[in-house]
Amino acid sequence: MENLLQVTGLKTYYHSKSGIVPAVDGVNLTLHKGEILGIVGESGCGKTTVGRSLLHLYKPTGGEVIYKGVHITPKNIAQYRKEMQIVFQDPYSSLNPRMTVSDIVGEPLDIHHLYASKKEREEKIAHLLNLVGLNSDHARRYAHEFSGGQRQRIGIARALAVEPKFIVCDEPVSALDVSIQAQVINTFEELQQKLGISYLFIAHDLLVVQHISKRIAVMYLGRIVETAESDEIINHPQHPYTQSLISAIPIPDPDVAKTRHRIPLEGDVPSPMNMPSGCPFRTRCRYATERCAKECPSLQETAPGHSIACWNPHY
């Protein structure tokens, strides 16, 4: 498959009063054209920072982001804003309450001069709203008049306004009710099939990511620790952290749930400002050895399409 996005050694460090915080520390990713790649991990692992760093909403500290064979830098990112968009996590804070839906969705059209007349602008806005399951009459209303799911659809319409090829979906359903989550996820899937857009889908819910993504990357403390096809990573996890995450997925069948072996994690997540030596997961890993304390494992392929960063993988 043709690569759309290639990320190599991505690093993003924050500067605080207490020192430097490595939010993302050497992430490698490949996204194919028309593919949905999911990123999962617990809160604070760096998922959102990865997504925003790819778009230079956060300035990367190091590494390379190559889009369609071009190295993206602060100098040329403006040329690619039309092709690379984002849908934010919180539909309540990501929409301007003083703007009508027409102004919110139409703003990207205004910035990039994507219409020849006022009538064409209105037609494009109406088309975008219909595309995400909203009525064109909604264009005259304000964001606070809509439910959370409808607001997120407005955010999706805004991202689609410039006909992007790649969208970062930054936990787009985590702030929504479960019933609404399914509707919004179905909207993402329908749009992907219609328009052939590539998604980087960030979430902490493994089942949501498994449903929508072709491949999954698991993050822990700023690093990718495992990548594989969605079903493969759910059914055959190899990294101890991934195994623990999957063992915590609730099962609706009580008889099956009773027989399931829960793998609890030991200790607390280390502070990014005081990372353990060697493997960042070793302080919570039941398989840790002396080598884990001395050397940090890199992501290595253990089977076709399945890579892990672990000295002691368990199959």
Commentary on this structure:
The protein has 315 residues and is α/β, with parallel strands linked by helices. It is 30% helix and 24% strand. It has ten helices and twelve strands.
Write the layout of secondary structure elements.
Elements (H helix, E strand, L loop, with lengths): L2 E14 L2 E14 L3 E5 L6 H8 L7 E6 L2 E2 L12 E4 L13 H11 L6 H14 L16 H13 L5 E5 L7 H18 L2 E5 L3 H7 L2 E6 L2 E7 H6 L4 H8 L6 H6 L30 H5 L5 E4 L2 E3 L7
Parallel strand pairs: 3-8, 3-9, 6-7, 7-8
Antiparallel strand pairs: 1-2, 1-4, 4-5, 9-10, 10-12, 11-12
Spatial strand sequence of the major β-sheet? 6-7-8-3-9-10-12-11
Order of helices and strands: EEEHEEEHHHEHEHEEHHHHEE
Global structural class: alpha/beta
Q: Pick out the low-confidence regions.
A: none
Radius of gyration: 21 Å
The major pleated sheet works out as:
8 strands, mixed
